[in-house]
Amino acid sequence: MADNPSFSDLLPPPVNFAFMVTFLGTGPVPLPNPIDIRFQKVSGIGVDFEDDSEEVQRGSQNDQQQSLRGRPNHPTLVLERGLVVGISPLSIEVKAAIFGQEFNKHNVLVILMGVGGIPLTSYLFTDAYPIRWSITDLDADQNQIIIERLEMRYASFRNIGL
Q: Domains of the chain by range and CATH?
């Protein structure tokens, strides 16, 4: 008898190294572009809820209560890539934000890819704006690529199935 394939054999769990980040903007520079999608690490995808749940009476019956969860908290979205030397639309806007000019809010789409680059699912972060930019330490004893790190806050996020 032949073994029946399991669901995980038909659709294996996704891997964490196949993804793409796209900025969907409203600013003066049209985004996305081929330079600003090359991130090597994304973190901060998630949500937790404040632990101040509230017990409320349910309906007209005094013996039933319902627990309402607290407000959602979103971690900052952290994007990391090799330092871009030169000009890219995103680096122009981040530098403008660093030096006191206004940063146009963007929707950021993180797309998780499957085998052959086929999109599996995505996460949409709305009205994202930078709150921190940094690069790794410069160290003459190391022979490593300089990593640029961009931390962003956003209004909301949701999982968008593809």
A: 14-47+67-161 (2.30.110.20)
